[in-house]
Every structure is written in structure tokens, then in C-alpha cells.
Design goal:
The protein is α+β, with helices and mostly antiparallel strands. The protein has a seven-stranded mixed sheet with strand order 1-2-3-4-5-7-6, sandwiched between helices. The protein has five helices and seven strands, in the order βααβββαβαββα.
């Protein structure tokens, strides 16, 4: 059992610590503490903490585009502190429920590094479909990485 709760300034240390872990360095783009603090107060974003049944923080997610006139919300980030325990998939299902049932979005989308097969598999398992690839779109130190764009539409979610 897990739950989602809105993040607050006290969660910034956990968020930043997770982003800067060595095992995530090639899987996400790290933001500064200051950027997270600013974004936490943005009306266009929603930070959610993932907690287990005991109330222990297991991860977090960031939704963006809450004010999109196209009703298209981006799953900007999801990080689970201990991958492989099923928290990510359960959190994704709860996030999609929030996106489509609470925010009444038409579309939820994300980008994921092409080499992140584990995440792509989890996204597909909850209904996301691959739309295309932004070839070598980001430079990470001495190499370029491609991003896969994935989405799920409201009618697909309710099927």
C-alpha cells in the first residue's frame, strides 16, 4: 500500500538527494535545490511524495502543465528510492488517476532516455505508448542521448 501527498519545502532535501544519486545520473536531469524550491510553488506544477503504508518516503513525482489550455500534463519526473519493489508502478497508477480524474487532463505524456529500458517497460505496463524519439536531443557530459516520447490519452486510461 502506498499513498501520494503534496510535497512541501521540508521534502526538498529528500528530492535533491535522490536526484544526485550515482545510479540516477544517466537517467534524469538534476535540478538545483533552488529550482525545486521555486517550482514547488508554481501553479503549473505539482510535486507529490510517494509514501509507503508506514508513512516512510519512498520517492516523488513532479507533474507539469497543470494550466495547459490543451489539458496535456507532463509527468516531468518520477523517482523511486528503491526500484524493484513495485512502488513505481503503483505510484504511476495513482498519478494517472489524479491526472485524468482530478485534473481532467486529455493527455499525459513524458520523455524518458532511450537507454532506460526498465522505465520504458514500466510506463508501457500502465498504458503509455511510445510516440517517437528525439534523436540525440540532450548532451550529457561527453555524449548525446536520445529521448523517447510516451503518452497516454484519457480515453485509453478509461478503457
Amino acid at each position: 500500500m502506498i499513498k501520494l501527498r503534496s510535497a512541501n519545502l521540508n521534502d526538498i532535501d529528500f528530492i535533491f538527494t535522490q536526484e544526485t544519486r550515482d545510479e540516477f545520473k544517466d537517467l534524469i536531469l538534476c535540478w538545483s535545490r533552488e529550482e525545486h524550491s521555486r517550482n514547488l510553488h508554481s501553479a503549473d506544477k505539482h510535486y507529490l511524495m510517494i509514501e509507503n503504508a508506514s508513512g516512510e518516503t519512498q520517492g516523488y513525482t513532479i507533474l507539469s502543465g497543470l494550466q495547459s489550455p490543451n489539458r496535456s500534463i507532463e509527468l516531468t519526473r518520477i523517482i523511486v528510492a528503491e526500484p524493484g519493489l513495485g512502488y513505481g508502478k503503483r505510484a504511476l497508477r495513482m498519478i494517472l488517476k489524479k491526472v485524468f480524474e482530478e485534473y481532467n487532463a486529455h493527455r499525459c505524456w513524458l520523455d524518458v532516455f532511450e537507454h532506460n529500458q526498465r522505465a520504458r517497460h514500466v510506463y508501457q505496463s500502465v498504458g503509455f505508448q511510445e510516440e517517437g524519439v528525439l534523436r540525440e536531443a540532450l548532451r550529457q557530459k561527453d555524449k548525446y542521448s536520445s529521448l523517447v516520447i510516451m503518452s497516454i490519452l484519457k480515453n485509453e486510461y478509461f478503457q
